[in-house]
Fold this protein.
Amino acid sequence: MTLSPYIYVTVSMRPDQRSRISVAFNSAQLRARAWLGDSGKPCFDLDTSDASVTVSTVGPVTDDDLAVAREIFNAAARYLAGCERLHSEQSAKATAGEAA
């Protein structure tokens, strides 16, 4: 089953708790971009034509900022590995189906 691309947004607001917003991008049209702001601060965007998320620092770059950047990098590498594995498996199944 193949779904059409979509964006899913959830807002949770409960008494005496912090509000939480979750955004799920489920689309091959997602774009990732890294750029430098006017002051030279690093920015990282994930966006589609319908929504975007920007990650950036709030002042001088700290050890915590470096840790977040490494987490993003490592998570993106795991995402790529998962996509490559599934693509390879799906291609092999399609090729086997054509040969049958």
Observations:
- The radius of gyration is 18 Å.
- The chain has a mean pLDDT of 91.
- The chain has one helix and five strands.
- The CA atoms of residues 51 and 92 lie 34 Å apart.
